[in-house]
């Protein structure tokens, strides 16, 4: 891994930590709050690509496990990684990888609508489903109930998918994916 990639991975882990400083919105019927950190996950995958994007999220999770209070609401340590939020958090490296993989494949003809679709497919649908299933298993509720309850995240996550797509397309020229895919 190049030094530049390590710096990008660290910067995006820090960005996601900063997004965690914005207070979460608790929902009374589900033990997982609405946060802005999923916006950072989408940005990491789209801007950094599959490898560096997923590494940035792995680094973030390691920092959480070490006890840094960088999750939304100021939590950190092992408790969030074994509680109802575990599935959502552990899906983040996979989500960033998949978004990065798909983004790299369409990079030469990247359009905002394509990136919105990629973000929705992998973050909103895949990440949401993984998180909801694990949450249901941990809270000992039916999986179907967890999936239905997690639909509360969909409107906000779609807004985040649009924002992330616009930012990545606008910052495309300075993205490490630009260098990788186009050899710029």
From TrEMBL:
Keyword match tRNA processing: no
Compartments where found: Cell membrane
Keyword tags: Cell membrane, Membrane, Transmembrane, Transmembrane helix, Transport
Transmembrane segment boundaries: 7-23, 29-48, 55-79, 85-103, 115-138, 144-169
Secretion signal, residue range per the UniProt entry: none
Membrane topology: Multi-pass membrane protein
Record-linked Gene3D superfamilies: 1.10.1760.20
UniProt similarity note: Belongs to the BioY family.
Stated name of the protein: Biotin transporter
């Amino acid at each position: 891994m190049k030094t530049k990639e390590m710096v990008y991975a660290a910067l995006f882990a820090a960005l996601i930590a900063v997004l965690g400083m914005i207070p979460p919105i608790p929902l009374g019927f589900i033990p997982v709050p609405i946060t802005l950190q999923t916006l950072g996950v989408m940005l990491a995958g789209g801007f950094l690509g599959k490898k560096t994007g997923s590494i940035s999220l792995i680094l973030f999770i390691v920092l959480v496990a070490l006890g840094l209070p960088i999750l939304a609401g100021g939590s950190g340590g092992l408790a969030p990684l074994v509680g109802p939020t575990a599935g959502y958090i552990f899906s983040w490296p996979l989500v960033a990888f998949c978004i990065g993989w798909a983004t790299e494949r369409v990079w030469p003809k990247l359009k905002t609508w394509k990136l919105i679709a990629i973000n929705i497919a992998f973050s909103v649908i895949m990440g949401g489903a993984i998180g909801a299933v694990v949450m249901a298993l941990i809270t000992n509720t039916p999986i179907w109930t967890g999936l239905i309850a997690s639909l509360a995240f969909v409107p906000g996550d779609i807004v985040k998918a649009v924002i992330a797509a616009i930012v990545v397309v606008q910052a495309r020229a300075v993205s490490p994916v630009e260098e990788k895919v186009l050899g710029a």
